[in-house]
Amino acid sequence: MNQVDSTREHLIETYRKMAKHYDVTSRLLYPTPGYPQRAQRLRTVRALGLRPGDTVIDMACGTGLNFSMIQKAIGPQGQIIGVDLTDAMLAVAQERVKTNRWSNVSLVQADAVEYEFPAQVNAIMSTYALSQVPEVAAVIAHGTAALADGGRWAVLDLKVPVNTPGWIARSVTAIVRNFASIDEWIMRRPWDAIREAVTEELTDASWTELFFGTAFLAVGSKGTGTSE
């Protein structure tokens, strides 16, 4: 088994173990108690500039924590496609869909790198997930190609902060340690790859560091002729 496959299997097993309690721990403890995760998720959804009727892909959607925020923007005439690698996380997401009686949500179990994006979607987002994918640049490129002109890509994720208090840096690296080798993650600096890919693939790309540099929001639009 190569390194990429090993990382993928480790992620699946980790998220399977976390799935049942993910919503609670995510809300209260991720990546540290009091962290403004929900506010950051909401900021990401708003950055997409969604309109009623839009189709949105939530890549690595997990248990569907973003769905209610997206629903408020796109309405029942819109569509959400939730994609995740882990069956257990999608099972929780399916329960969320059932409980809320959403008829406009489709769930797909797929690897982010291998997922075949449907054409002409209006927006793609990913929260706290893509930094775990070594081939993140390819995911962003594939997604961009599927966007309709003017469609938006938004990536919210964690990063190692620079020139910030030690306790803040430790709070980020502690949570990442659950999913990957922290040394490998730091050396790989996936946030740099995401920033570069968004800048190369999209127009009007923006990069915003959040909460003392422990997270970032990268956003851009597909211009006419981009990634065709």
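[next item in queue]
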Amino acid sequence: MRVQQDARFVEIRSASLAYGAEEAGGVLALRDASLSIGRGEFAAIVGPSGCGKSTLLKLVSGLRRPSAGSVAVDGAEVTRPLKIVGMAFQNPTLLPWRSSLANVLLPLEIVEPHRSRFRRDRAEFEARARALFAKVGLSGAEQRYPWQLSGGMQQRVSLCRALIHDPALLLLDEPFAALDAFTREELWETLQALWLDRRFTTLLVTHDLVESVFLADTVHVVSARPGRIVYSRSIPLPRPRRLEDRYAPAFVDLVHDLRDHIGRAREPVAA
């Protein structure tokens, strides 16, 4: 099954971002970076360590403003943190004193417009959370605390928390990097199923080229710092993708193509 996307839900145009003044030893993380992601598209960003991949997520989410250029989401310039975003990171960052269910409900308790109706509609919100637990294979774990969960289970809870408010945009910063290979692959399938069900626009940062090809519609390669997009590759593989598809010649060729461009991306971009 192929999934159709609308054009330019996320639009980064010639964006640069410096952390501190360069003359004072600051770092130019991005320079003249441009990126377009369609509504409902699953995009991945790969590149050398320290190239600015996570910085791109900060720009899209509104956690940082570009030093130059512009960032727009859904046709509006991003000037502050966006409420339509869900985020998950390599560390699940669950609160240890809250149950899994309470951790998932946290965004609804603190972010408007959900906050003002949380008490009134708590039963509805809990039902929504339990439905997510079921989708990621965690039914029955709602009242367990993070320290009672495996790493993979914690990351599934983190995904539920990122999706509980039905975000239009999901940002993922290497969410599976710390997991063992078997758990990581299970979560690839879980994330793909969630995406196929909800079609939220997704931007994934990863070092794993196999992961990027398995999950994404398009993979973007970022150059060495200061980062910019130097190559974009469409992934024309049908969905749903199966783990055994990783060994198919077409899949392997895509991974090798990206690996070749990652090698070139390690060279600093000329000023």
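[queue empty]
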